[in-house]
């Protein structure tokens, strides 16, 4: 819009006002279109469209609007565009090469007196822009990867590969916000006689047991809408979404059977599972639901272990 505001003081800017306004209008339209959530996933394509408009305007100004002058705005485009988005470097370089080739061809046809100067200048700026842009992409991606690994390290239990207790409480805080999807139930899973298992077979066997258990729970996460967290020691919490009480108890029973069937170097373990259903309840504190599931798991252990127990109906408040 700045060239439009400068039009009263520059005849060359005044002649190009319709094109500046047209490109500005399209930019604004694209900006609002990409506000829609179902369009946001195509944001990269939207950026390529915007930068194509930028190049088209710059080429128009160079070879049609002012053919008696060397290109200026186009040089800025070759520097700015490779810095303006994150994509595969080869694709970005090909995008810049396409617009460079198009401008070079048009320059030799429509402004031959400056075509060679423009070609050399644009080539230098395109190489510089792509070189710096590629370096920035690598730097950004390395930074993102470092941040991702740091986040995983903070949120993941090393032994099982599941979310840790810290991540659990972060999740509970999110669940208590008004716009969060609410879970339908919470499970407390407790390994039966795990201390005795450690004492009898050693801590290395106990660690392997935990690792295998984590792998099995991750398989359930891939198949069902249920997320597992290591709560501490031999206890795990699972948060389930979209299941009624019957389905939740059936899923818990499937977990119990899967654990019982798991072979750990010829050894076997079992779990007691307590289930607390949320249903359509308005839950203000999900730690209370975990406590209810814990009491149900205690009831399962008291009843003989290796079973699934739902919380007593009178506890559902």
Short description:
The chain has 317 residues and is α+β, with helices and mostly antiparallel strands.
- The gross shape turns out to be elongated
- Please tally the helical runs, counting DSSP H or I stretches of 4 or more residues: 13
| Helix percentage | 55-70%
Number of strands: 5
Distance between the termini: 60 Å
The biggest sheet amounts to: 5 strands, mixed
Structure explained in plain terms:
With 317 residues, the chain is of the alpha+beta class. Helix 5 (43-65) packs antiparallel against helix 6, helix 5 runs parallel beside helix 7 (89-110) and helix 10 crosses helix 11 (203-223). It is elongated. The chain has a 5-stranded mixed beta sheet with strand order 2-3-1-4-5, sandwiched between helices. It has 13 helices and 5 strands. The longest helix is centred in the middle third of the chain and has 44 residues, at 112-155.
Please describe the structure with a list of short key phrases separated by commas or semicolons.
317 residues, alpha+beta, five-stranded mixed sheet, 13 helices, 5 strands
How would you summarize the topology of this molecule?
Blueprint: H1 2-5, H2 11-15, H3 17-33, H4 37-40, H5 43-65, H6 73-80, H7 89-110, H8 112-155, H9 165-175, E1 185-191, H10 194-201, H11 203-223, E2 226-232, E3 235-240, H12 245-261, E4 271-277, H13 286-302, E5 308-310
Parallel strand pairs: 4-5
Antiparallel strand pairs: 1-3, 1-4, 2-3
Helix pairs in contact: 3-5, 5-6, 5-7, 6-8, 7-8, 10-11
